Amino acid sequence: MLKRLLPVLVLFFLAFNLKAQTVITSDTATTIDYTYPKDYKIGGITVTGAEHLDKNVLIMLSGFVIGETITIPGEKFSEAIKNLWKQGLFADVEIKIKKITGNDVFLDIKVEERPRLSKFSFKGIKKHEADDLREKIKLMKGKVVTDNLILTTQNKIKEHFVDNGYLNAEVVVTQKADSAQANSVILFIDISKKKKVKIKDIYIHGNEALSDGKLRRAMKDTKQKRWYTIFNSSKYLEENFEKDKAKILSKYYAKGYRDASIAKDTVYKVEPNRLTIELTVDEGPKYYFRNITWLGNTKHSSEELSRVLGIKKGDVFDQTKLETRLFMNQEGGNDVSSLYMDDGYLFFQVTPVEVQVENDSIDFEMRIYEGKQARINKVTINGNTKTNDRVIMREIRTRPGQLFSRADIIRTQRELAQLRYFNPEKLGVNPVPNPSEGTVDIEYTVEESPSDQLELSGGWGGGRIVGTLGVSFNNFAARNIFKGSAWRPLPSGDGQSLSLRAQSNGLYYQSINGSFVEPWLGGKRPNSLSISSYYSIFSNAQSGEAEQSLKIFGNSVGLGRRLKVPDDFFTLYQDVNYQHYIVNNYAGYLFTKGKSNNLSYRFNLSRNSVDQPIFPRSGSQVTFSLQLTPPYSYFRKDSLGNSPDYTGLSDQEKYRWIEYHKWKFTTQWFTPIFGKKNPLVLMTKAGFGFLGHYNNSLGAPPFERFYLGGSGLTGYSQLDGREIIALRGYSDGSLSSSSGATFITKYTAELRYPISLNPQATIYGLTFVEAGNSWDTFKRYNPFDVKRSAGVGVRVFLPMFGLLGLDYGWRLDDSPYDINMERSQFHFTIGANIGDL
User: Fold this and answer.
1) Most exposed residue of 86, 236, 267, 556, measured as fewest CB within 10 angstroms of its CB?
2) Is 78 exposed, middle or buried (0-12, 13-18, 19+ CB in 10 A)?
3) d(CA 837, CA 835)
């Protein structure tokens, strides 16, 4: 009986309370009968408790409007509270009836503001870690402190440390009222990183076709902790683990196990800071390609397509290989899609279909839709804020009216990267096809990067430090020199190069030189014009009869052009160089008083297919050069009309007009080993040089000789036209005699890995082995008798300063010219080509 009466009593109690609720106003007691709703007009609204917020805005957010009619009781009150509450600004919200006058109701919105952040601090971490966290949590002064804010902050901090291997990290956030500011709190963020959690072991079960070692090596970002894994992190990240499981399956797919799967995986702690991973692999059977047929092809025969595909009956099934040969082969673009798309078939499609799987063999049907050839309609450029459109357009290989060619697009991207005006990582292309008209619009996107450079360096020469200050403007616009509005801060955008450089060690040596390059002389063809000039003086800082000096004037003019045969990667460059030497009582030179002249012609033929200049990933560069002077000794006659006896002539007479012929050959190759985003690249290089003479009685000149060893950053290279060649691990010039060499050979191999490909600071590390030697005569020349070295280094490319390098090299052999040389040493280098053969 009591159980039946209890619900009735509860309902009666609730009804009684609702009926008798009273709201106490500021003036009188007004009874609101909640069982009979009544309409009222809002006569006024006040806000209390809001000290830091605009009260009019709060009234607006509530939804109440003075003069509108509302029902009491009604849903309008709950909606208003909900609207204010979801702003996240308040700890409590209450709406009261302040008074009722006739049919007018006056409301009071009472709020309790949440405290605001005045400042926060970290405890338990280092300053650089705190700086990193500030960027992630983005806490700002004045922000409302809510439970959600504190929870989000804790989660972001913990996620940051988990991503760095601290899986047991703990974060506690406490708040304390700031006595200096009303309604403000200080957050104290206490972080306990604990020790890094490493992967102790990775166990793999069920694998027979592939060994544990091969599968572990396929997992690039999930490694077990071993003493030899110093370059790999063994931290556990679930996201990386999922990616690495896919890489294991890719390894199986490449071996023909297309049904391979990860049957089971588990991760568990074996120690407080150590995890163990166990994987169970279901390999499945191994499959092979059998019959491959082609359907829908009219442009190319099935035999030709099968040859390009390069997959034969009986080959192990490899899905990656199949897709690569069909759609995008990185090795020269030799794939079926390129065959069509390089001939205008933009709308070409090929769909490989498995038509039969029998035992361990698969038959494929390649279903082709060739479509129509597409012609290029419009070509546009987007993103260039400094470089003029015409400078970019002249490098673009895809022109309106031409047939679409994917090879031309790839080549265009390579040419734009070679300009060095744009970020090579951000070069993009957006083809917009129009199938109904059979055309395509092509938009190239670029991102300007700084190209001007400042050189500030020091070298060693003549027993003193030689300082260098230089500037290079690599996207100059000479035609705007006299246009005031173009100086922002310099006229730029036409792709010209202007370089100014000065060297000095004080009063004893000064040198200044300048050069200008116009890469498109006339603006219609890629024929370059180069002009350079320099002046150097070596002296004892005295004047008059006590002066001892060597003055050198030099000028050169060169013309270059791109060739179309054997292919359009070839360039031909020719220049004429002249140096005039004035010697005035300068001790230690060839002669103490007199003049010398060096007039030479240089022929340079090179082929450059390197993909980009800063961090090349692929391609090669091969260069052959010949520099020669007229054979003056064949034209000179004495008073009797006979050739003079050079053995009896003074050095001043011998070298009044210097004669020689100088031959050089270099080849350099870049080969990606693995990786796409951050590839490991092998650079191999070989160089050979020979300085010859016309007249045996005159012999090889003391000018233009080779000096091998060190970093290549020694001073006074203009002293006698000497060529300074680097070989790390040895002292400067220590692999050549004091008078230089006439034969030289050098070999280099480097493994390069990028640390940062940001155009503002491109950084890569390297390990190297190199070998070389120099000789005075052909009889002693032996390209296999070389001095070897090995070492490590780092390169940093800063747009303002160019390429800076630091190497530590170990020499593996002794030098006959410096037997007391250190076994290892550091080398500092500036520029990509200084000290190279």
Assistant:
1) 86
2) exposed
3) 7
